[in-house]
Structures are given as structure tokens and as C-alpha cells.
UniProtKB/TrEMBL annotation:
Origin species: Tulasnella calospora MUT 4182
Keyword set includes Iron: no
Name by which UniProt lists this protein: NAD(P)-binding protein
SUPFAM superfamilies found in the cross-reference section: NAD(P)-binding Rossmann-fold domains
Matching CDD domains: carb_red_sniffer_like_SDR_c
Family annotation (Gene3D superfamilies): NAD(P)-binding Rossmann-like Domain (3.40.50.720)
NADP listed as a keyword: yes
Pfam families the UniProt entry points to: adh_short (PF00106)
Keywords, ordered alphabetically: NADP
GO-annotated molecular function: oxidoreductase activity, acting on the CH-OH group of donors, NAD or NADP as acceptor
Residue runs in coiled coils: none
């Protein structure tokens, strides 16, 4: 049975869990920091015997090692695909500030940078190292890490994306984590991929943005249109994004090991 571990329990992670567990032949494990906070996932797991919810924070190495043991107990010590989806994403007003706008308030910026690195860089390494022994014993040896086009410096500049420093700086480092692992394990037949999912609507229903956040989103989208004049300005659904990413993951080629691509399998991030 093909086996998948997904970090995160809502947004894109939930959609991966839903689509992958719709095939009864798959074993799907989600790793979430608080199962009570993702009732939709719990409901789905109650309906599908091949979907399991495990509890671990990405910053908690012992909990991640235990999650790997729990997966091994079901799969017989193997794992085929690891999907690093969970991430630290600040939606508060700080994420719409430019680096210079923290002038005089640098400790807030430093805290955001530390938190984002803790989850998006250290956490991804903790998860990957915890599941490596299982992946080594697996059939396909794929490790997919969700990144963002905003971590592409050339695109970032062309699209005037001066805001969201801590998140995008940490994701640029995540891309290097992907490249480091790819270089280390290519000879063992592993395939490591950093993939951007597009601009995806994962807002929690019922949440609203204040004026400052809304202005930040408008500015971000205007920059995207400058870099990609054909971009509609619309978010895509998690279903569409995950459909496109699963097509790529299912057909991943050895020469794509270590690359950083979009849901379109190229550098078109939108
Ligand atoms: N949505 C987009 O447009 C977009 C664009 C580019 C890239 N991405 C990337 O795609 C991925 C998924 O994005 P999304 O929009 O689905 O995000 P999301 O809806 O905000 O979900 C983030 C998930 O990460 C989990 N998480 C955060 N910190 C964690 C920690 N310390 N330990 C364990 N889990 C933790 C959250 O858990 P809780 O439920 O407990 O909070 C949540 O399940 C991310 O890597 C993101 O960077 C998204």
C-alpha cells in the first residue's frame, strides 16, 4: 500500500489528506500540532480507515520521532512519500510591513524571523530526519516540501514584494534545505522537491481582514500582476492546487531532484 505522511491539518494539508485518502489503497498519516483544532480532519479520519491523525508540533523532535514510530507500526517500517506542508504563516499586520518599516521596532521583526525559521527551516529538518529511516525502506523515496514563489529572489524583485520578510526569507532557506537533502541522497534514489502551490484560498471561513491587511493583499496582488501581466488576480482553490501538485508528484523524474518549481511545473508562480 502506498504510504504518505502529511504535516498540517487544514488548508492545503487537509486537501492533500482528503484526495490521497480517497484511494483506499493508500495509507495516509497527518501530523498535526492540535488535533482538536482541526475537526474537519478528525471527521474525515473517523469515516476513512486509511487516514490517521498523529499529534506533533514541528518544533518538538521527540514527538516527531514518536509519530515516525507510530507510522512504522502500521506500515511495517516504511514510508513512500513525505509531504512537508505545515508552515509558520503570519497573517497579522506585521507580515505586510517592509523590513525598513520595523525601524525602531526591530525586536518584533527578530521575533518573527526566529519563529518562522523555527518552523519552516528547523521544523522541516526535524520532520525529514525523523522519517528518513522509513523513507529509505520505502518504494518511491519522495520528499515534497511546500515553498512559495515569493522565495524566488528574481520574482520577488520583479513583483515589488518588499513585505512579508520573515516568511519569505525563511522559505528561501527552506528551498536550500531541499537542495541540501537532494544533494545528499540522490545516489540512494531519493527525490526531493520544493514546490509552490500557487496563490491558494486557504482562509479559515468566517475570518475577516482589517483595512491594513486588505491593503497589504491588494499591494501584493498588484505586484504579482506587474510580474505576470496575464495573472487574473484570483486565488485558486485548494482542490485545484493539490490536483496539479499531485500530478507532478506522481510523475516526478530523477532530473527534478532538488528543484524548486511551481504547481505549473515551471517558474510561473501564479
Ligand atoms: N495558501 C497559499 O496561497 C500559499 C502560497 C504559497 C505557499 N504556501 C505554502 O503552502 C503550505 C500550506 O499553506 P496553507 O495556506 O494551507 O497554510 P494554513 O492554512 O495556514 O495551514 C498551515 C498549517 O501549518 C500548521 N502549523 C503551523 N505551525 C505548526 C507547527 N509548529 N507544528 C505543526 N503544524 C504547524 C497549522 O496548524 P494549526 O492548524 O494548528 O494552526 C496548519 O495546519 C505552507 O507551507 C505555505 O507556506 C501557501
Amino acid at each position: 500500500m502506498p504510504s504518505y505522511v502529511i504535516t498540517g491539518g487544514r488548508g492545503i494539508a487537509y486537501e492533500f489528506a482528503k484526495q490521497l485518502s480517497s484511494k483506499p489503497e493508500n495509507h495516509v498519516f497527518t501530523v498535526v500540532r492540535n488535533p482538536d483544532a482541526v475537526p474537519a480532519l478528525g471527521q474525515l479520519a473517523a469515516e476513512r480507515k486509511n487516514l490517521h491523525v498523529l499529534k506533533a508540533d514541528l518544533t518538538d523532535l521527540p514527538a516527531l520521532k514518536q509519530a515516525a514510530k507510530d507510522v512504522a507500526a502500521v506500515t511495517g517500517g516504511t514510508l513512500d512519500v513525505l509531504l512537508n506542508v505545515a508552515a509558520w504563516l503570519s497573517s497579522d499586520v506585521n507580515s505586510y510591513k517592509t523590513l525598513s518599516e520595523f525601524e525602531g521596532n526591530e525586536e518584533v521583526l527578530a521575533k518573527d524571523l526566529r519563529e518562522s525559521f523555527e518552523v519552516n527551516v528547523v521544523g522541516v529538518i526535524y520532520v525529514t530526519n525523523s522519517f528518513l529511516p522509513l523513507l529509505r525502506a520505502g518504494q518511491t523515496k519522495k520528499v515534497i516540501t511546500l515553498s512559495t514563489g515569493m522565495a524566488d529572489p528574481d520574482f520577488n524583485y520583479r513583483a515589488n514584494q518588499a513585505q512579508a520578510g520573515p516568511y519569505t526569507i525563511s522559505k528561501a532557506a527552506t528551498n536550500m534545505v531541499n537542495s541540501k537533502y537532494a544533494a545528499e541522497f540522490a545516489d540512494e534514489g531519493f527525490k526531493f522537491l520544493a514546490i509552490s502551490p500557487g496563490l491558494v484560498d486557504t482562509a479559515v471561513p468566517g475570518t475577516t481582514m482589517n483595512d491594513e491587511q486588505m491593503a497589504g493583499v491588494m499591494k501584493m496582488v498588484a505586484g504579482f500582476k506587474k510580474a505576470f501581466p496575464d495573472f487574473s488576480g484570483q486565488y485558486i482553490s485548494p482542490t485545484e492546487s493539490v490536483n496539479l501538485m499531485l500530478d507532478i508528484i506522481d510523475t516526478l523524474k530523477p532530473e527534478e531532484n532538488g528543484t524548486f518549481i511551481s504547481h505549473h511545473r515551471n517558474k510561473n508562480w501564479l
